[in-house]
Amino acid sequence: MYKNLWSNGYKEVAEFPDYTFDEHFGQPTPTFAPRAVLKDYLEGRMIRKSDKDLKNFIEFSTVVRWIKFDDLTKKYTVTVNNLKMGETREEMFTHIVVAVGIYNTPFILDIPGMDKFNGRLFHSHDFRDATEFKGQKVLLIGSGYSGEDIALQLMKFGATKISLSYKSVPKNATCIMPQEIEEKPLVIKLDAKKAYFIDGTKEEFDSVILCTGYRNYFPFLESRFRIPEETHFYPPGLYMGALFFKEGNNTLFYVGVQILFYSFTYFEALAVWTCRYIMGNLKGEPKTLKEMEDDSNIWMKRAESIKSETEGLHFQTDHIDTLVEKSEYEYPLTKVKTLMHEWIKVRKEGLGLTRYRDHVVKSPFTGFKGLKQKPFMENFDDSLEAFLNVASSDDISIA
Ligand SMILES: Cc1cc2nc3c(=O)[nH]c(=O)nc-3n(C[C@H](O)[C@H](O)[C@H](O)COP(=O)(O)OP(=O)(O)OC[C@H]3O[C@@H](n4cnc5c(N)ncnc54)[C@H](O)[C@@H]3O)c2cc1C
Question: Whole-model pTM?
């Protein structure tokens, strides 16, 4: 995460129906939120919506180093390392939920000549502050959400040239791009100063940032419990996108290992399904191994055919729908889904990359519209205080 990072999604999509942003802050707030706001909101729900202080159930500053499953006792021995106490110990568990996220291990491309480049070259995982690149010519390799957002940060904080290299489809196919961000095709080679592109052009750069995504990596799991490294809309080996059915007697779960559109909304659905499964509260469960494999194969096949943002969104909406239906969890997803489609449209046909964060939408749960704040490209204050200190509520037209 970097300084001045704002959510790229509507807070109204991330909102929990049982604990809205308005309830948390006690006032209406803008639609797009910076990091501090989302952290405050998540902590608020955890503390205020629980009858117990959930923090008492969590051991902080403690790393899971190794998890071993005993096929006879069907229990896990977990080796943990408490960093504050400097102590390593083992504990036994009947179930494991892997929720360490999928943004820990960068996927580093091997580009010929990259070892010869004289400027800064690093992965977006290590990007911290766009002001470091003021006055620089910067090449971003990879035009996913990291690439586009860092390009925007560089534009906002004064890089002189920003080039965004795409693999197969230019970003302007899905989003109106500002002319300050130049789109370039695949980089085939680097040397001390220049990047060479597949269309035969070459250019000099001061810095190169690899926005090439991440790899699933779970070093604390025995290899038989690991899902494949490639990130996916529906990783293989998971029933309902959560239960690892290949080993472990249906007691190991992954929550949040999918390529995301919805984030909080999806995590919530996966987490509720997982909890209810572990508690034995789901109708029609457990399934046989064959039933789980068949079900998983259907989702996986569909995931593999996804070719556009809209298809990805439909897929994830259907999966969340299935999770909430099976969990008998009331979640009015239809209303949230409409907002997601609006988000795609605003970027592609309306305000585009530089201004989509100036759009405001209504909360599906409170009916109140987000407040208009200072335009994103002119807003250099990402504090919680500034976010709460917004008065006007005029909408910005997407046309
Ligand atoms: C640059 C960037 C921008 C993003 N922007 C947005 C956005 O605008 N909107 C949005 O909704 N989402 C966004 N996301 C995605 C969002 O941040 C993730 O989806 C979300 O943080 C995932 O939550 P998580 O709890 O699964 O994992 P994380 O938030 O990554 O939390 C995992 C936790 O597990 C801990 N951990 C890891 N290994 C171990 C171990 N061995 N033992 C113990 N603990 C361990 C980590 O320290 C961490 O605290 C963004 C992500 C990135 C990288």
Answer: 0.93
Chain position carrying tokens 């239809």: 334
| 24-53 pLDDT, tens digit each | 999 999 999 999 999 999 999 988 888 888
Q: Which of 36, 76, 87 is nearest to 253 (CA)?
A: 76
The three-state secondary structure class of 231 is coil
Query: Is residue 268 a part of any domain in this protein?
Result: yes
CB of 4 shorter than 6 A to ligand 1: no
Q: Are residues 295 and 254 in the same domain?
A: yes
Distance, first Cα to last Cα, the chain: 32
Residue 63 near ligand 1, beta carbon < 6 Å: yes
Mean pLDDT of 382-391: 91
Which residues lie closer than 8 Å to 2 by C-beta, 6 or more apart?
Answer: 127, 128, 129, 130, 150, 153
Range of the domain at 39: 11-47+335-388
Is residue 219 domain-shared with residue 327, that is, in the same domain? Answer: yes
Cβ 260 under 6 angstroms from ligand 1: yes
Q: CB-based contacts of 125: which residues, under 8 Å, 6+ apart?
A: 103, 106, 214
How far apart (Å, rounded) are the C-alpha atoms in residues 147 and 151?
6
Residues facing residue 258 across a β-bridge: 232
| Span from the CA of 102 to the centroid of ligand 1 (angstroms) | 7
Report whether residue 9 contacts ligand 1, using a CB cutoff of 6 Å: yes
pLDDT digits (tens, 9 = 90+) for 123-145: 999 999 999 999 999 999 999 99
Please give the structure tokens belonging to residue 396: 């910005």
